[in-house]
Amino acid sequence: MSDHTRGASPPVGPPTTASTPRGELAEIVVNLAAIRHNVRVLRELIGVPLIAVVKADGYGHGMVEAARAAREGGAEWLAAATVAEALQLREAGYAGPLLCWLMLPGTDLERPVEEGIDLSAYSVAELDAIAAAAETVGRRARVQLKVDTGLNRGGAPRSSWLDLFSRARAGERDGTWKITGLWSHFACSDEPAHPANDRQEEAFRAAVALAEDCGLRPELLHLANSAAAVLRPSSRFDAVRCGIAVFGLDPAPGSTPDLGLIPAMTVRTRLALVKELAPGDAVSYGHRWVADRPTTVGLVPLGYGDGIPRHAFHPGPGPSAEVAVGGKRRPIRGTICMDQFMVDLDGEPAGIGDEVVLFGSGPDVPTAQDWAEACGTISYEIVTRIGGRMTRRYVDSEAMP
User: Which residues contact 13 (CB under 8 A, 6 or more apart)?
Assistant: First the structure.
């Protein structure tokens, strides 16, 4: 078992992991062993190479550390959204297969071409920009073509496929680039029965056929994201892109079988204050919650300045988010503030300094999915937005629940 804090060297002595370190308001604990475990589980299930997506600072888990753990777990590829993210992975020492897909006009493409990063293109204009960079640095670029099959976001629209593929083939013939992949992205894979999934897979197969008719033979065809990788075997093609599942979170709540994935992130702090309320006392801005009985509340020193969703509390229908205090779930009471929020301790013994777990894994601990449901969002947003003034700490423990 190892344990280190972001930006610091691992300690020499045995780590202390029982509670938030003294002097720290809160911490994000990331278990790298869980990431490795999740990748192994996914690789065993899918049977094709896995592209671990570590964009947005590794979904809030720390991009470089998460990428390293994913590779150790068996991920053959890494992927990031932006050129800057991809270059950060190269600067951290990762020399393996790497894809990125978001560029603006004028983005410096010379470095990624030099670094052998696969650049995604979905227009002739982007191919021209890559060609200029490849000519400048004197190196053959690596390019993956992205087609839009129904998400109507990034990707070449069907009307431009022929032009894109023809230009791609011309550049391949003259040695400007190697077309290493062809890919697309599902819109509704977390709803396995949605008819859009069939339409998108059919469209992708049509794109593959047209690319081949144009003389292209991409090394890697990939369509499936985490949900499709698990739930739609026909969409696995040559590889799958897994992001949220790598971090142990359910990509399709209510539809995904129990795979034994383990959430890698735990967020915890300690109570900063405990106080008693009388019936009729109201809590926090707007007095949106009023005690109807003698109540003990605790102050949690985190707020929306740290990525806690302000709508984690709502007085209307449906439960507010919960935290774990003393091994029991406790609901949030009152409006989330920038730096703090209150929880109902329900008369249970609790004191200043007692540990509070916002979400993580294990018995009687709320999950990121629980928070997502309480906030009307998805677990991706919960883990990606969390941070602010928290310290991120890495552990490497096989003793997982």
Answer: none
The gap from C-alpha 318 to its chain's centroid, in whole angstroms, comes to 26
**Which residues contribute to the annotated binding site for substrate?**
153, 338
Annotated catalytic residue, options 122, 178, 275, 285: 285
Tokens 């992927």 belong to residue: 79
Q: Which of 55, 59, 304, 394 is catalytic?
A: 55
pLDDT tens string 257-285: 999 999 999 999 999 999 999 999 999 99
> In the chain, what are the domains?
32-247 (3.20.20.10), 265-395 (2.40.37.10)
Instruction: Give pTM, 2 decimals.
Output: 0.92
Vertex 251, ends 250 and 257: CA angle to 5°? 60
Decide if 285 is catalytic.
Answer: yes
Q: How far is CA 37 from the centre of its chain?
A: 16
Q: Which residue has the tokens 């075997």?
A: 233
The two tokens of residue 151 are 């998400």
Burial classification of residue 263, based on how many CB atoms lie within 10 Å of its CB (0-12 exposed, 13-18 middle, 19 or more buried)? buried
Q: Return d(Cα 343, Cα 324) in angstroms, integer.
A: 10
**Binding positions:** 153, 338
Burial class of residue 69 (count of CB atoms within 10 Å of its CB; 0-12, 13-18, 19+): buried
Q: Are strands 3-5 and 177-183 parallel, antiparallel or unpaired?
A: unpaired
**Is 146 labeled as catalytic in the residue annotation?**
no
Percent of the chain with pLDDT over 70: 94
Q: What is the pLDDT of residues 363-376, one digit of tens each?
A: 899 999 999 999 99
Is residue 360 within 8 Å of 400, Cβ to Cβ? no
Residue at 42: amino acid letter = L
Phi-psi region of 307 (alpha: psi -120 to 50; beta: other; left: phi over 0): left
Average pLDDT over residues 20-24: 57
Query: Average of pLDDT values for 239-263?
Result: 97
Round to whole Å and give the CA distance between 252 and 243. 13
| Partners of 78 in beta bridges | 52, 98
- Distance, first Cα to last Cα, the chain: 15
